[in-house]
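I'd like us to work through together how a protein chain folds, taking it slowly. We need material for that, and I hope you will provide a protein of your own picking. Go ahead whenever you are ready, and we will take it from there:
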Amino acid sequence: MIVADENIPALVVEALRAAGHEVAYISEIAAGIDDDEVLERARALSAILLTADKDFGELIFLRRRASASVVLMRLGELTDADQAGLVVALFAARGSELAAAFTVVTVDRVRIRPGERPESDP
C-alpha cells in the first residue's frame, strides 16, 4: 500500500496504479490535511508514504514522530511522465527495501536509510 501526498503529480499516482500498486491519494481522499495527519494515515495503514515534502524528514528525525515508511521524491526538474517512470521502476526494483525505511530519491541517486525512525510519539 502506498499513500501519495497531495504534492505528488497525478500522473505518478496513475502510473503506480497501472503497475498494480494500491495507492491512496491524499488529493482524492483528504486534500488539505496537515503533514502530521498524512503521516498518521500512512502509519495506520502500514503504508509507504510517497511525498515531495522535505518537512517529513524533520517530523520523523528532528521531532521524533512515529511514521510509516517514507519515500521522499526530489525530482522537481523532471517532467511528470519522467517522474512516473522513475518511481514505478523504483518500486519494481527495490520495493521490499522501502518498507521500514526513509528513502530519498533524486535523479541520479537513491538513498535508503532503514530502521532509523522511532517506534512511537514521545
Notes: Strands lie at 2-4, 23-25, 48-51, 69-74, 101-106, 109-114. Residues 2-114 form one domain.
